[in-house]
Amino acid sequence: MGAKTALVTGSNRGIGFEIARQLGKQGVTVIMTAREQEKGIKAVEELKREGLDVHFQELDITSDSSIKHLYSEINKNFHKLDILVNNAGVFIDKNFTVLEVDRDTVSKTMETNTYGPLFLTQALISLLKSSDDARVINVSSGLGSGNSIGESHPAYSLSKAALNIVTIQLADALRDKGINVNAMCPGWVKTDMGGAGAMRSVQDGADTAVWLSLAELNTTGKFFRDRKVIDW
Ligand SMILES: NC(=O)c1ccc[n+]([C@@H]2O[C@H](COP(=O)([O-])OP(=O)(O)OC[C@H]3O[C@@H](n4cnc5c(N)ncnc54)[C@H](OP(=O)(O)O)[C@@H]3O)[C@@H](O)[C@H]2O)c1
């Protein structure tokens, strides 16, 4: 087992899968999660073939019972958590403006992109406290940053702006408990979500989250892109 243990949500594909791979390559034991067991096991098997110490746990971040079950499995099998990467997310209002978006779309987006990271982090605090250098990394987006918000994709922007606020609040609450909490934007990345026209590879998209997970830094409550602090 690696010295550090990380949990990466939504790591069956896209940026989360690459974050799990890069952390694994650095010797971290990685708990990979997916909401569908079959997809998660397939992803874990792929990284095991690369020689990485990866494990599968099922997780739907919108479900309290799923979060509770995950907590007890990690507590039983790993006893602590050093790194939590809240990566799982949805982008279901690509074609809506703020004048058209419906309540169901806003609710589903908030449940996944904002409430999921908030309640998962809450549930795992006691395990993070058992680490001597715990980090929480929230995968946010420039589309949730004050400078870039416009009329388009209102639910997604709202959810990521709110995730940024959750990041600041958690960082404040956990500052004296030795748990650093930061947000990062991966840039526009070629994944199912980003689409084929995106500018960045998953390797580049994952880089800052991995750096925030492992680099020697004592920063909390900040928003990063390309390893640099950016404005909220
Ligand atoms: N791609 C970009 O250009 C870009 C830019 C800025 C920020 N981001 C952020 O980066 C993160 C990863 O994005 P991506 O591009 O890798 O997206 P992706 O390819 O669509 O992957 C999203 C992942 O989240 C999982 N997920 C969705 N809802 C979930 C739930 N309720 N519970 C657990 N897992 C759930 C998905 O699982 P399933 O396979 O089951 O659907 C999948 O594993 C997201 O937070 C996204 O907002 C992406």
Strand and helix map with partners:
Blueprint (H helix, E strand, L loop, with lengths): L4 E4 L5 H12 L3 E6 L2 H13 L4 E5 L5 H14 L5 E4 L16 H27 L4 E6 L14 H21 L4 E6 L17 H13 L8 E3 L2 E2 L3
Parallel strand pairs: 1-2, 1-4, 2-3, 4-5, 5-6, 6-7
Antiparallel strand pairs: 7-8
Helix pairs in contact: 1-6, 3-4, 4-5
This protein binds NADP nicotinamide-adenine-dinucleotide phosphate.
Overall pLDDT, averaged?
Answer: 97
Overall structural class, as computed from helix and strand content, comes to: alpha/beta
What is the beta-strand fraction? 15-25%
Low-confidence residue ranges: none
Give a structural overview.
With about 230 residues, the chain is α/β, with parallel strands linked by helices. It has a single domain, classed as NAD(P)-binding Rossmann-like Domain (Rossmann fold), CATH 3.40.50. The protein is built from 6 helices and 8 strands; from the N terminus they run E-H-E-H-E-H-E-H-E-H-E-H-E-E. It has helices at about 15-25, 35-50, 65-75, 105-130, 155-175, 200-215; strands at about 5-10, 30-35, 55-60, 85, 135-140, 180-185, 225, 230. The model has no long low-confidence stretch (mean pLDDT about 95). The structure holds NADP nicotinamide-adenine-dinucleotide phosphate (NAP). NADP nicotinamide-adenine-dinucleotide phosphate binds next to helix 1.
